[in-house]
Design brief:
The structure holds two protein chains of two kinds.
Chain A lengths: L5 H10 L1 H14 L2 E2 H11 L4 H6 L3 E4 L2 E4 L1 H11 L7 H20 L5 H38 L6 H23 L7 H18 L3 H62 L4 H4 L10 H17 L16 H11 L5 H12 L5 H8 L7 E5 L5 E6 L2 E6 L1 E5 L3
Antiparallel strand pairs in A: 1-3, 2-3, 4-7, 5-6
Helix pairs in contact in A: 6-7, 6-8, 7-8, 7-10, 8-10, 9-10, 14-15
Chain B lengths: L8 H9 L4 E2 L3 H8 L1 H12 L2 E4 L3 E5 L7 H18 L4 H7 L4 H9 L5 H6 L6 H14 L3 E4 L2 E4 L4 H22 L1
Antiparallel strand pairs in B: 1-3, 2-3, 4-5
Classes of the chains: A mainly alpha, B mainly alpha.
């Protein structure tokens, strides 16, 4: 029995709300509040309020720990909008109670009026509670999934994928099965049947009071069906894709982690990984085009730089001094040395050049001949290779000395 | 006999043989995907390469086990993704739409303690210069990134590496489940 005035209690909550919020969050995390935590928080906020907490029945003692009582816990949960997701099994109990109440109403529709009214009211309440739980659950699952996606707790990706799988397996998919509008056994379709029945009774039931009760129930059901559709859409269009995305992105990261971890291992053991074994390769090397161009350019260069014809028509001429000296000796006396030389070389090679001619002229320097310079005015003109040589007439005789 | 080739045939073949990804949207993508059957046969019969046509890109794969470029890019993207995730951001969204620059990339790689050894050992990613070359030569030439001023963005073709990571995990799970049976 609480002796305090309601306003005193509300004022107390208002005054110490920050501390109460810490206690609520601690209990949300750990199910209970331990002795040390409670004392520390009281000390931190400098408020000696332990007695009031018990007096106003805000907390209760369980062995060596504490717990916020249900009514206050629900209040904080609601005003902080931090609902703990309920297990689908906890929600499903409403489906059972709603179904049972409806069956009873139908069976006993012609029996006691008062129990009928009680049951209609009770059914309306159960539907309200059910909807409230579904909404809270969807909302809290959405918050938790978004937090998980943003990784606000900086948890490891493997834990993240584990949590995502946990939420989807134990909370989201079962909740979706309960409210799925496409599932004939879902609560949506049960409520739809109740709505049809109620619609009929609100119009034609013989008792006016009960007609009004059915009218109220029918209006609640209309709204309930809209709400369930909305919640189902949130689950199907937002929550399930969101949680699937968390699973996917974490699978990718896990794959990358796996790849990097095996990367070092790969170097030593060459595993057959598909990416490396069968994957787009650089079919041609990056500089293929440049290398090819360069390769052909070197041949183009050889063509541009003309190489002399190797098949020249004349044989290499070698000055055979011994042979020509012998001929010269046989021809002595020679009246005109330069003319004789010209004829000699011509007889062997008509296409001689001036260089070869001058080589032949070197016979003049042989020791055993005598050179006579007869007439200084007498000249010979020899033309060859665009060259015109004007040279004196030299007589060669044998040196008798 | 004169053979009628699809539109932009030369550019399509050249791009793909150069190891480029042909991206959607674009005239080459349109032509290559419309004539998917022709090009699949063409590359198989001419080069023994497999043509992959995805909804956002087209590329070739071969059986060349010595190919190292994709391994280096996979390593680069894996480390980058891991570091982005560590930063608390969604790496899929970041790779898909965020702008990167060399300074940001270098910060990730220089502060990566988890993969320090791998970075040190891979010549394609172990220095700012090598990373610059990998990004602006290798990846740019293959249409894996798009240069926008001083920044760059990944093209949709980067998803091939994310899909590969998923495949790795699937295979790993299959192996695990085989063992547990």
């Amino acid at each position: 029995m609480i002796k305090a005035e309601p306003k005193t209690i509300l004022s107390f909550i208002h005054q110490h709300f920050d501390l109460l919020k810490e206690l609520f969050l601690a209990q949300s995390r750990n199910k209970t509040i331990d002795y040390e935590f409670l004392n520390n928080e009281i000390e931190k906020y400098g408020a000696e309020i332990k007695n009031q907490l018990f007096e106003y029945q805000i907390i209760k003692s369980i062995n060596d720990e504490y717990q916020i009582t249900d009514v206050y816990y629900n209040l904080f949960e609601f005003i902080l909008q931090q609902f703990k997701p309920l297990l689908p099994e906890e929600i499903e109990k409403y489906v059972q109670s709603i179904t049972n109440l409806f069956i009873k109403i139908k069976e006993d529709i012609r029996k006691d009026k008062n129990i009928l009214i009680e049951r209609i009211d009770s059914l309306t309440n159960e539907i309200d509670k059910f909807l409230s739980q579904v909404k809270n659950n969807t909302s809290s699952l959405l918050v938790k999934s978004r937090d998980l996606k943003a990784n606000i707790d900086n948890i490891d990706y493997q834990e993240k994928i584990h949590k995502a799988s946990f939420w989807i397996e134990y909370y989201i998919i079962p909740l979706n099965n309960i409210i799925d509008i496409h599932n004939s056994e879902s609560i949506y379709n049960i409520l739809l049947n109740i709505s049809e029945y109620t619609n009929e009774k609100r119009l034609n039931f013989h008792d006016e009071n009960i007609r009004l009760k059915f009218e109220r129930l029918y209006n609640r059901l209309k709204q309930a069906l809209i709400d369930i559709r909305q919640q189902s859409e949130i689950l199907v269009n937002e929550l399930i894709p969101l949680i699937e995305r968390i699973k996917t992105e974490n699978s990718i990261l896990k794959g990358m982690h796996h790849y990097l971890s095996k990367g070092l291992w790969y170097k030593k053991n060459s595993p057959q990984q598909e990416l490396l074994q069968k994957f787009r390769d650089n079919v041609f090397s990056n500089d293929f085009e440049f290398s090819t161009k360069e390769y052909f350019e070197q041949f183009q260069l050889e063509v541009d730089v003309f190489i002399n014809d190797e098949n020249h028509s004349f044989e290499d001429w070698i000055f055979d001094k011994f042979k020509y000296k012998e001929r010269m000796t046989e021809s002595i006396p020679i009246q005109n040395f330069f003319e004789w030389t010209m004829n000699e070389i011509k007889s062997e090679n008509a296409d001689f050049n001036t260089s070869q001619y001058f080589t032949m002229v070197s016979l003049l320097f042989e020791k055993d001949i005598n050179i006579e310079y007869q007439n200084q005015y007498e000249k010979v003109i020899i033309e060859k290779d665009n060259t015109e040589l004007t040279i004196p007439v030299l007589k060669i005789t044998k040196d008798e000395d | 006999m004169k053979i009628e080739y699809p539109k932009y045939h030369y550019d399509i073949v050249k791009s793909l043989l150069d190891g480029k990804f042909i991206l959607f949207p674009g005239k080459l993508y349109k032509s290559a995907s419309e004539d998917k059957e022709f090009y699949t046969d063409f590359f198989k019969e001419s080069f023994d390469y497999e043509l992959i046509v995805e909804t956002e890109y087209v590329y070739l794969i071969s059986d060349n086990t010595d190919e190292k470029t994709s391994r280096d890019i996979m390593t680069f993207i894996s480390i980058l993704s891991y570091e982005i995730d560590k930063e608390g951001k969604n790496f899929i969204d970041e790779l898909n739409s965020s702008f990167f620059n060399l300074e940001r990339i270098n910060q990730y790689f220089e502060n990566s303690h988890s993969w320090h050894e791998i970075i040190k050992e891979n010549k394609q990613i172990n220095s700012p210069e090598s990373r610059k070359s990998l990004i602006y030569n290798t990846m740019l030439k293959r249409n894996l990134i798009e240069k926008i001023g001083e920044n760059f963005q990944f093209t949709k073709a980067h998803k091939i590496f994310l899909n590969f990571a998923l495949e790795l995990i699937k295979k790993d799970n299959e192996v695990e489940s085989t063992y547990t049976q």
